[in-house]
Amino acid sequence: MVGMCRYMPVFLRKMTPPDLFLSPIFVTEIGTKTDSFSNNKNELNSMKKLTLLTLLAWLIAVAMMPSANAQTIEKGTKFLNAGIGLGTYTYRGLPIGASFEYTVKDNISVGGSFDFSRYGYNSGGYKWSYTFLFFAARGTYHFGEILNISDSKFDPYAGLSLGVRTSSYRDNAGYSGDYYSPYGNSVFLGLHAGARYMLSEKIGAFGEVGYGVAALRLGVSAKF
Predict the structure, then answer these.
(1) Is there a contact between 154 and 65 (Cβ–Cβ < 8 Å)?
(2) Among 1, 36, 39, 46, which residue's Cβ finds the most Cβ atoms within 10 Å?
(3) Do 156 and 143 touch, CB atoms closer than 8 A?
(4) By its UniProt entry, which InterPro entries does this protein fall under (predicted)?
């Protein structure tokens, strides 16, 4: 009981043991979070399988692209991307984010990304939520030239990212911090592989599979 109390919000610590365990807030909150965390391992395994299968499909699709005069992402090209993530790792929520890339050398771009995600629960008037922020630097290689892809609108790529993830907890009982949190703040290494298709000279759509923030990311790109 003593060990458990240090994970409780302040208002629960002040309750007597009988009142505490009879409290519907305590039962609902602890039960809900326990169920949530116990499902994360199964979800993570499923996301890893989904990522590997999607990555395999991406490699097959790229290999089947017609080849002729290879296209090059030239030095100085810039991309601004915005999208949503599906199938998160180690947590829940729907990450929304943006990234910027600058081509420092033909077919090699570097940049940064930012993602925001939140999930929570509401029962009997009691609400809690976790908020996640992701900040990362990323590097990408564009495979159009090396794969002899002739379609200048199609840009397959893959790369790495290194960043920091922050997480915070808040409820409507006035408690905030890292209460009952398995997440904490940490450094993460990410992988991504995807493709961009330009719908016009300046605007395109992209899809990525990867590891770090989400298994799948879909969004729009601006090229300038």
Answers:
(1) yes
(2) 36
(3) yes
(4) OMP/PagP_B-barrel (IPR011250)
Model confidence over 82-95: pLDDT tens digits? 999 988 876 778 89
Which of 187, 189, 165, 167 is CA-nearest to residue 178? Answer: 167
In this structure, are strands 96-105 and 78-88 parallel, antiparallel, or unpaired? antiparallel
- Strand 108-123 and strand 126-142: the pairing is antiparallel
Which domains, ranges and CATH numbers included, belong to the chain?
2-223 (2.40.160.20)
pLDDT tens per residue, range 163-186:
999 988 888 887 766 555 566 788
Length of the chain: 224
User: CB burial class (10 A; 0-12, 13-18, 19+) of residue 80?
Assistant: middle
d(CA 156, CA 171): 43
Tokens for 91, please give them.
Answer: 């947590």
- Distance between CA atoms of 10 and 199, rounded to whole angstroms? 54
